[in-house]
Specification:
This protein has 153 residues and is mostly helical. The protein has one domain. The protein contains 6 helices and 2 strands; from the N terminus they run ααβαααβα. It has a two-stranded antiparallel sheet with strand order 1-2. The protein is globular, with a radius of gyration of 17 Å.
């Protein structure tokens, strides 16, 4: 089912926003100081081309550990990203979502654009995984949290 969704998504406009992500990544790469953001742009751009069956998840939620991108430096990087490019990509995704919501068949695509708009606001510290991997990570984190709560009582 996700293959059909990805095919329809790609031909009905997903390619435009994917290329927008790659354009921003190319510009960031050319500035040299933007290379860390460029890598994220290319990864999320690929995700934007074919989003069904995969999702973005925080690396700290996936691994259970904080890293460079999920800590204070990641926050600073996300603020810089938001001011330079994130807002514009989010506006593009929201505009595409509104256009998709006009038709009944476009509603799932509009929802996906809104998810991508949220990612475009703060992509540093995120990683793209299959839905099954994300669900498994969330289950492990939930079990860990329940164990911690039970230990307190």
């Amino acid at each position: 089912m996700s293959a059909i969704g990805n095919f329809l998504w790609f031909i009905l406009g997903g390619v435009v926003m994917g290329l927008a992500w790659w354009l921003v990544g190319a510009i960031a790469f050319l500035t040299v100081v933007g290379i860390p953001w460029a890598r994220s742009c290319f990864v999320i751009g690929q995700f934007t081309f074919f989003p069904f069956g995969r999702e973005a998840i925080s690396r700290s939620e996936l691994t259970g550990q904080d890293d460079l991108g999920t800590g204070g430096l990641g926050l600073i990087g996300n603020v810089i990203w938001f001011l330079v490019a994130g807002l514009w990509l989010a506006i593009g995704h929201v505009t595409a979502a509104v256009a998709n919501f006009i038709t009944v068949i476009g509603i799932p695509f509009g929802i996906q654009h809104l998810k991508l708009a949220a990612i475009s606001l703060a992509p540093i510290g995120q990683t793209i995984v299959t839905k099954e991997v994300a669900a498994a990570a969330r289950k492990v984190n939930a079990e860990r949290s329940v164990g911690t709560l039970r230990a307190r009582n």
